């Protein structure tokens, strides 16, 4: 008897991040992590971050506001300098 359930292929949400085609905060997050922990783990972390964003949008009705890669990079630079001054 054939199965009545069909499985959909997994969404490839981060393929653009891996090719460095995107210029947004999530792509910058992925590139920063990929350098530090490797591409596979960075892809998993970015996919989780996207899932949390979508969850909050659906559950709480919160809109997603893209901060941009430049703002994300500036924020990370400021955070690193703050850690160095401690």
How would you portray this structure in words?
It is a single chain. By secondary structure, the chain is mostly helical. The chain has one domain (20-85). 65% of the residues lie in helices and 0% in strands. The chain has 4 helices and no strands. The longest helix has 22 residues, at 39-60. The chain starts with 14 loop residues before the first helix and ends with a helix.
The helical percent reads: 55-70%
| Mean model confidence by pLDDT | 81
Poorly predicted runs are none
Oligomer: single chain
Keywords for this structure?
86 residues, 4 helices
The gist of it:
The protein is mainly alpha-helical and 86 residues long.
Describe how the helices and strands are arranged:
Elements: H1 15-18, H2 25-37, H3 39-60, H4 69-85
